[in-house]
Amino acid sequence: FAQDCLIIRDKDGNIHNFPGFNTAQKYVHAKIEEQKRLTGKVRALVLKGRQQGMSTYAAIRFYRRATLFKGVNVYILSHEQSASDNLFKMVDRFQSHNPLAPSTGKSNVKELEFDRLDSSYIVATAGQRGGGRSRTISLFHGSEVHFWHAAKDHFASSVQTVPDLPGTEIILESTGNGP
Questions:
Q1: Which of 5, 51, 83, 125 is the least buried, fewest Cβ under 10 Å from its Cβ?
Q2: Cα angle 128, 130, 133; round to 5
Q3: What global pTM score does this model have?
Q4: Strand pairing category for 139-143 and 169-174
Q5: What pLDDT, in 10s, does the model give residues 85-95?
Q6: Can you tell me the distance from the alpha carbon of 93 to that of 24, in angstroms, rounded to the nearest whole number?
C-alpha cells in the first residue's frame, strides 16, 4: 500500500513515492506484527535513535487503517507544535497524492475526517492537559513521549480512550533524554 499509494518528503527535501521500510522500521514492524498476531492488539514502547523513521512508520501504518477500514479513529500526540505540524503535513501529503484516498468531510490544520468510512485522523500537541479525553480512539501514537509536558496526565487521558479490544493499537516512541 505505502509504496504504491503514498508520497513522502525525504531528508533531502525531495518528494517521491515511499521507497519501502528502512532497517529500523522493518525491525519494529516485525515485532509489532508478532505482538498483534499473538494478542490481537498492539501495545508497543519504542526507544529509538534520532531520525530512524518511527513517526513515519506509525503515520503510514495508521493512515492505511483509517483510509481502508470503517470506524477507525487515529489520534497522534506529539511533544511540541512544530512536530505536530510536521506529522500532519506528512499525512496530508499522503491524502493529497493517494490514488485511493477516501473522501473527507472535514479537513483542517489538525484533522482529517473520512466521512464515508466514519474514520478520522487527528494530530495534537501535548501542551494542554488531558488531550484526547472524550474520544474513543482505535489507534494511538505518542510521539517523543519522554518530552511531553504533563506526561502522566497526557498518558492517562489518551491511553485510557483506547479500548482493550482486538485491533486496537498504542505505539509510544521516544528518543532518550539522559538516563
A1: 51
A2: 125
A3: 0.90
A4: parallel
A5: 889 999 999 99
A6: 23
Q: How many CA atoms lie within 13 A of 31 on its CB side?
A: 12
Distance, C-alpha 157 to centroid of its chain: 17
- Quick one: cell of 172? 509510544
Q: Helix, strand or coil for residue 169?
A: strand
Question: Which tens digit of pLDDT belongs to each residue from 64-74?
Answer: 999 999 999 99
In angstroms, the CA 135 to CA 53 distance is: 27
Closest to 136 measured CA to CA, from 105, 177, 106, 167: 167
- The grid coordinates listed for 51 are 531520525
Q: Long-range contacts for 108-115 (Cβ within 8 Å, ≥24 apart)? A: 110/84, 112/66, 114/66, 114/67
Quickly tell me which residue has 487515529 as its cell: 74
Q: Looking at this protein, which amino acid is placed at residue 79? A: H
